[in-house]
Structure formats: structure tokens, C-alpha cells
Amino acid sequence: MESVNLKVSNAPFVRSKDSIESVMYNVALALAPATVMSVYLFGMRALVLTVVCILSCIAFEWLMDKARNKPNSCLDGSALVTGLLLALNVPANLPLWMVVTGSFIAIVATKHVFGGLGYNVFNPALVARVFLLISFPAAMTSWPMPAPFSFDMMVDMETGASPLGILKTDGVQAALASLSLMDGFYGTMTGSLGETSALALLAGAVWLWYKKYITMYIPLTIMGSVFLFTGLFHLIDPGTYASPAFHMVTGGLILGAFFMATDMVTSPLSIRGQLLFGLGCGLLTAVIRLWGGYPEGISFAILIMNSFVPLIDRWDLNDRKAENKKKPEKP
Amino acid sequence: MISEAFIPAVASLGSVALTLGLIIFYVSKKFHVEEDPMVTILNDTLPGVNCGACGYPSCGQFAEVLVETKDSSMTCPVGGTDLAEKLGDTLGITMAEPKPITAVVLCQGDNDTARETAEYLGIQDCWAATQTYVGPKQCRYSCVGLGSCIAFCDFGAMRLENGLIIIDKDRCTGCEACIPACPTGVIVMQEKKAERYVIACNSHDKGAATKKACDAGCIACQKCVKVCDDDAIVIENFLAKIIQEKCTSCGKCIEVCPTKVNCILLEEDLKEAKQKKAS
Amino acid sequence: MKTFKTGGIHPPESKFTENTPVELMPVPKELAISLNQHLGKPAKPVVKAGSEVKKGELIGEADGFISANVHASTSGKVKSVKPHPHPGGHYAMTVFITPDGQDEWAEGLNTDPVDWHGFSKEDIIGKIKNAGIVGMGGAGFPTNVKLAPPPDKKIDTIILNGAECEPFLTADHRLMLESPEEIVEGLNIITSLFGGEARAYIGIESNKKDAIETLTSHASSKGIEVVSLKTKYPQGAEKQLINAITGRTIEPGELPFDKGCLVQNIATAVAVYEAVCKNKPLVDRVVTVSGLEIGKPKNIRALVGTSFRDISLFCGNLKESTNQIISGGPMMGKAVYTLDVPIIKTTSGMLFINNVGIEKARERTCIRCGKCVDVCPQGLAPWLLANVAQLREFDEIQLLGLANCTECGSCTYVCPSKRELVHWIKYAKALVNNRQKRKSA
């Protein structure tokens, strides 16, 4: 009996089974329907792109851990999720070297430069997407046409503008003609890998919400505010502004609202903060879509609001402090 | 054609720059604070570590007060005699020489001599550990050995060796920043002197209990008290204590001490002292 | 079903000993009775090495207002009085008794039950004080002090805490099944101290259906309401229990009596009954011995001062794979570092576990998931408190509500990054206290 080697640690001695890994792998699992859908729509090329993206992210993570002399975190799932999100955010025919550049920007320049997981201010996948969009606008806006079950590599695939691009350049009539709302919902339209199928994305989001990994405050305020804002202008002038339902299903709104804006690291912690964050994202998205230079606004909107997160959290913090200042000292 | 494009840009940006520059100029004139040049000179002479050993929160405040009062008894322990001379020359007065002091760890219970309790797996910090249980060592008066004080030392004078804090007496300036950082209060300040003896144990347990917990503890056996010619050692609450004013540094107490590591020479390295005793 | 408003978690219940009746543990070969078994100042020893004591005889006298008497748990000879490891982790003055095997009560103690209705209020509180009764749920606040709040505070609600929300522990559960009459009588004695209008409740979590039934059948005729509570940790914390049953919120800085409430533990009620009616001091208690690494998990009635070693031998010995022994429950208990520590009046459980996660679960960075904020029953932001504690910004941390933390451990339980949130908070509390002490010194 004396041979027992006792160890002293602090209460609680039971811990939940949740870990960074379980959180990250569940997010990846929730993105699985959208990934499968993208392979169905865009073929082998989509699969290759996704794999390259994930592997390059994990490799950069490993390199940065080595360089920064930190414990190895390349398999904790965060690099996997970043890679997957980045892949879902680019067109299927993007050259692979650009994809790797994107991974570099996401992992090295956005995440590890700020101190690694938990310290990054901006969502890594989104920064990479915006970087690619600004640096290679042609490659990032020539969207391949979906061709279900075509399992060739689509080297010279047919491309076209996205519904939102058509809306921006050719006006609302052309945009509506290019797409039926049901196509948008199921996903058979042009667009990046993962943003096309609202159905697959929502299925994953409901799973995450059911498992309590995300709350619905941010996504619902984003969707709601975009709906109301675009709806208002649609009511004023249906000839210039597309209907809110069109805005709901096109572009990366659903992907952004449910998977990018809800990123734990770069969103506020308090409920009212999350509501404010969602409202800001929604309004900015709508403003960029309606009047901005780019057809799509959700990435910029989320990144802009990301930079406000410390401020929003400070609001909560100051209120907590003020509350405790008022109260009498414990006797 | 080029100039047509350039002129408005240059003109607009230039005027913005000019306006801002004027504002800065005005503000700096308006809010200019008159400062005694002497304070700046003294501040540059001071070590600039803001350690607080002088009793003022920063070197700047020390300089201000010194210029204002010209109080020659003010000392900066960090700078030592050299600095006192320099300050005196600058101000034209004779500054008091600071008594050099140093921190001493009143414990020699390293991983070899002190008995361990259970392995500690909580937050690696002395306060966190002592607040969980007695600590990694059985003796509750000992140096906990997780090194919380190291971060508080501005001069890099502390290091953790074999589960015990060692103080580099050449680097220690006696600023006392480490004292509140220690949960067991095992660090004290002593005057720096060529030869000085202290009882490096902090245990107020009875002899038997001390012996059970540590090989290098004072067991209050009275031998050093009896051998001391100058009545410089007293035993208080089961712990011997050297009264520094009476101690003549004869070294007799070291020879009789049964736990052999009880008394150390302050100015020598701990290991040297151990070797000396062993031989 | 009633429960408290903010936060809370539901860890696996692991109540292995739910259906194991309480077993009486024989007197061990040596007893180490700590003189610090309560909140406040330790008791002063009134015996010396060599004195003969009878069971129930006073060996430590309450020293000051917040302190409690300590009695010999059995008859025998005092071997020594010296500092000894305490289940709280530190040393405390301890009286060692070598039992003579007679287990003989001192004169006039442990008599046949008498009717308490004739006793005056002062009599009852005096008897409780003499018996050395402290809160047996864990905090160990002297009961006689708690039962005599300042006269300007009117108590209208008395709650008996049968929530037992900690996983593994079943001591109160068994007590509720096996001595419901004593519990009800004890509660009646306490209620009688506050006049006629005070309402009495017994709060029990719904995972103890049999206890709810038993107590309802005994209590309902006496005007006591048994409240079934949702199974949620920390339901048994004083503030949360009051909130669950009455809906009142104890604001930071307030004590329960500020809101007219008084909470007592089930075991304390039994002790009050025994002290008042049978003149029996608090010398034994029911302890749950559980965990996967003990041979036979049991509920035992053990004498105060029995060492963890003797109890583990009585319960089929511990396995070699044990790497942690916990005094108390797994959420708020303390890991002990030696089997020599004795049980004290507040030890409700003893767990022998093999905590495999402990080796690899090093702290990782916060991923700002916000789970700790969701579960904190006090509405704090534990991640922020821990961050600020790490930075040693102690002025800031007090403004963030450090003093309101009840250290229930819910935040650490849910943290996916395995941060030691509650330990950082305790660490900050220790350093803030130290700083205040230094300032006032």
C-alpha cells in the first residue's frame, strides 16, 4: 500500500470530455456535408483542392510550431478547420500554388504572427480568402459551372460569373434570370466550393448547434439583418435591388454567418456582444453587396467586425467592473 | 498633364500636414512643462530600473525629491558607493554611502536534503502550490522551490537549482522586490559584508520534526549557542538565530553544527562552503 | 422542477454507493483528532500527553467567537499533541489518542432521547455550542454562530440542504433514508429558534427519488416542505440552493441572513438533534468511501480522527493504480498527499481515483469559447479572472468580482483547453489577501 505514488492537483478532479480537439473535429464534421456536396458539384478537382489546402495548412502549422519552439499543435484540428474553410471559400479551378499561398497567409501571417490559436484577431481562413481575392482577382472571380458527377480534373472547365457578380454588373433582371431560388438552396449554381449549397451548410450548422459548439445569436442576427436591410430596399425599388431571399441563398452568406462569424476565437463572448457583432456583420454585408465595389461582402464584413471584437468585449468588461464598484465590500 | 494630376494631391496633403504640424507646435508650446535640468541629469545617472529599493516608486521621483531636498541621507542601494559619489559631485554635497544589502534564502532544503510530499501537478507557482497543500517539500517553512520570486527580480540575481533558490550576491541589489513574492517568507535581507554568518534555516518545528522533514534543518540542539564566545547565537522558537551586531565571524559554530549545513558564509558560494565543511 | 437561475453543469453522477447501507466502522488502533475542524480559529488543547479521556470528553476548547469545541471520539489515553497533516493540505495541532477499546462514554453523554420542547432558546444554542457542531457539508462554519444571527436580521426561511450535488458522494443520501426522524426533529429544533413564522424546506435533487419519498412521508405532517430539485451542480451551494427554493438572489457581499434565509446540511440537522435530545457531542460522521480504486466502496460511520489509511483498509484496501486520494467530493474536494491524514467533522467523502488525465492535461491557450461564462453560477467571466490573475493585476481582478467566486469548479470542469481556471482564481485570492495583510501590517 505504501507503494502508491500520490499526486496532488487542484479540484475539480473530474473534467468534461470536451477538448480543443473535440471542438475542432466537430466543426470539421459539420463542414463535411458541404465538402461532400462540393465534390459532387465540382468533381475531383474540388477534392484535390481541399486535400491540398488542408495538408498545406497542417504543414505550415507544424513548421510554425517548430520555429516558435512550441508544443506540436498541428493535429489539434484547428489547422484542419482553417484549411477546410479556406478550401470551401475559393473557386474549384484555382491554381494549387495560389491555394498554398492562401494557407501560408492563413496559418503564418494571421494566426502564428499573433501568437497562435486563441490569440489571432482575425479569422485566418477569411484573411487568406480576402488576400487571394485582392491579389488574384481574375482567378478568384471566374467561377466554374457546377457539373454534377463529372469526375475529370476539369482543367479547362467552363466558367461564369456568380449570381452576385451578375447582379453587380448586369443588374437585377439578369441575376434573377441566371438562377432559381431552389437551385441556390440546393447548390447547383456557380460559386466557391462550399458556399453554393445552403442545404448542406445548414445541416452542418444545426449539428453544431445541437452539440452546443455554437450558439445561434451571431448567425441569426446576421441573416436577419441582411434580410431586413435588403428587403427594405427591395420594397423601395424592386427594379434595382434584388429580393432578400435571393441574397440569402447566394454568395457566402450562410457559410460566413454559420461557420466563419461564429469562430470562437474571433467573436465576442457576451450575448449582447454577439448580437451587436452579428448586426454589424449583417449591415456591412448588405451595404457592400448593394453599393460596394465587390459583389460579395460577407468576408469583408466579418473581418471588419473582427477588429471590433476587443472593443465589444471591453464594453462588457467595463460594465462588469462598474457593477462591482457599486457594490459594497464583503465584510 | 502630369502636373494637373499632381497639384491637387500635393496641395491637399501638404495643407493637411501643415495644419497638423501647426497644431502640434501650438500644443507643445501651450502645455510645455518647465523641468529642472538637474533632475534630468540625475535621472540619467541613476540605474533606471525603477526597482523601488530607495522607497520611491521610480528613479525619476527619487531624482526629483533629491534635487528638491538635497537630503544627503538618501541612498540608492542599487548604484552603491560609485553612484553616491557621482550624485554628490553633481549636487555639490557629500552623499551618505549606502549600506550594501543582499537577499538571503534561509533554507537549504534542496531536492537531496528535503523530504518530498506528493508530486505537485497544479499551476507551477509557489503561491498556487502552498495554497493547495504544504507544498512539494514536507517542511512548511522551506523554500517551496517553484521559483515564483525569479520573475520579480529585475537584476537576474535569482536562479532555481535542484529545487532551491540560489541568490547571486554580486547581482543582488537588495531592492526587496522578492520578499513579498515568497509565500513562506524564506527570503530576508542581510547586510553585505566580507564575512557574515547566518543560520540558513527557517523551520520553527521541534528538532525531531525538522529532522524528519529535512537533513539540512536547524534542530535547535544548542551546540552553537554553547560554543559561541560572544553570546551571538540565541534559540528562538526552536530555531537558532545569529545576532549580527555581536557576531565576530569566528566560525566556531560551523564546526560544531551536527547537521553540517546549518550555517553558511554569506560571501561565499554555497557549494564552496559545503566543500569546506566536508573537508 | 425547481433549480437555480444562472449557469450550472451536470457531471456524471457516479453514485456507486447509493444503495449501500451505512456500516459502522470499528474503533481503529489510533485516532488523530485535529483541533482545526472548522472555520475560524483552531481550538485550544485542554489535554496533555498521558491524560486519560472518556468518549465525548472535551479535548479542545473553542478559542474565540468563531471556533468550535473538539471532543475525544473514543475512550483512551492521549499519546501526544503535535502538528500533523490535515485534510485541508496543511498542518494542524492534533491530539493523538490510543483507544482503550472500551469506547466508554463520559458521564451524562449519549443519554436516552429527551423531549426538547421544554428547552429555552439559549439552552438549545448552548447545547449545540458545547457539542462542537459545525456545518458538515464542507465549510465547517460553527453552527451555534450561524443559528444566532444579528437580531436585526429576521429569518423567515430555513432550508435543509439534501441536494448532495457532488458526484460520488452518497453520505447525506443514506442518512436521509436511514434516519429521517432525526432529520425532521433536528430541523424542527432549528426552526423553533426563529419563532412560529419561519418556513422550513428540505431541498433534495431529483436523482434521489427514494429520499424524497421517505422524507415527504415523515415531514409533511410537521409543516415542512420537501422540494424536489433538478439534478444540477452546484445545487447544494448555499447561494444556489436559496435561489432554487425561494427565488431570492444573494447579491455579492451579502450573506444568506440578509435575505432572511438560513441553510443547514442534512448531517448537521442530525447532529443538532443528537446534541439537544441525547446530549451527544459530534464525534462521528457518515463518510462515503468511493472511487474506482478502492476495493469495496461503502458508506461508513467513522469516528472523527480515523486516518485515511485505516478507512482504506476497512474498505478493502486501495489498488496500486491509485494516484489521487481526495478528501471531499471530486468538484470541490482536496487531494491529500499522505494516507496519515485523519477525517474531520467536515469530511463528507473520501475518493480513491486513478486520474489518468492529470499527466497530460497541461493548460493550453484559451480559445474564447465562452463555456465558462455560460456555466458560472455566479455570473462571472472565469477566463478573464484567470487571465488577469496570470498577469498579477490584482486591483483589476477585484473589480471583476473575484470575491464573488464560490470556487465551485464548474468553469474548470467544462474548459476544453483544460485551463486551471478555478485554481488561478484561488491563487489570486491568496495573493490579494496577502497583499492586504502586508498593507495593514
From TrEMBL, chain A:
The keyword Flavoprotein applies. One of its GO terms (cellular component) is plasma membrane. It is found in: Cell membrane. Its EC number is 7.-.-.-. It is a multi-pass membrane protein. Keywords: Cell membrane, Electron transport, Flavoprotein, FMN, Membrane, Phosphoprotein, Translocase, Transmembrane, Transmembrane helix, Transport. Its main location: membrane. Its cofactor is FMN. GO terms for biological process: electron transport chain; transmembrane transport. Part of a membrane-bound complex that couples electron transfer with translocation of ions across the membrane. The complex is composed of six subunits: RnfA, RnfB, RnfC, RnfD, RnfE and RnfG. PANTHER family: ELECTRON TRANSPORT COMPLEX PROTEIN RNFD, ION-TRANSLOCATING OXIDOREDUCTASE COMPLEX SUBUNIT D. This is Ion-translocating oxidoreductase complex subunit D. The lineage of its organism: Bacteria, Pseudomonadati, Chlorobiota, Chlorobiia, Chlorobiales.
TrEMBL record, chain B:
GO terms for biological process: electron transport chain. Keywords: 4Fe-4S, Cell membrane, Electron transport, Iron, Iron-sulfur, Membrane, Metal-binding, Repeat, Translocase, Transmembrane, Transmembrane helix, Transport. Residues 34-93 form the 4Fe-4S domain. PROSITE patterns: 4FE4S, 4FE4S_FER_1, 4FE4S_FER_2. [4Fe-4S] cluster 2 binds at residues 139, 143, 149, 182. The chain crosses the membrane at residues 6-28. Residues 163-192, 207-237, 238-269 form the 4Fe-4S ferredoxin-type domain. Its EC number is 7.-.-.-. GO terms for cellular component: plasma membrane. Residues 1-28 are annotated as: Hydrophobic. Binds 3 [4Fe-4S] clusters. InterPro entries: 4Fe-4S_dom (IPR007202), 4Fe4S_Fe-S-bd (IPR017896), 4Fe4S_Fe_S_CS (IPR017900), 4Fe4S_Ferredoxin_RnfB (IPR050395), Elect_transpt_cplx_RnfB/RsxB (IPR010207). Its cofactor is [4Fe-4S] cluster. GO terms for molecular function: 4 iron, 4 sulfur cluster binding; electron transfer activity; metal ion binding. [4Fe-4S] cluster 3 binds at residues 153, 172, 175, 178. The complex is composed of six subunits: RnfA, RnfB, RnfC, RnfD, RnfE and RnfG. HAMAP family: RsxB_RnfB. Part of a membrane-bound complex that couples electron transfer with translocation of ions across the membrane. This is Ion-translocating oxidoreductase complex subunit B. The gene is rnfB.
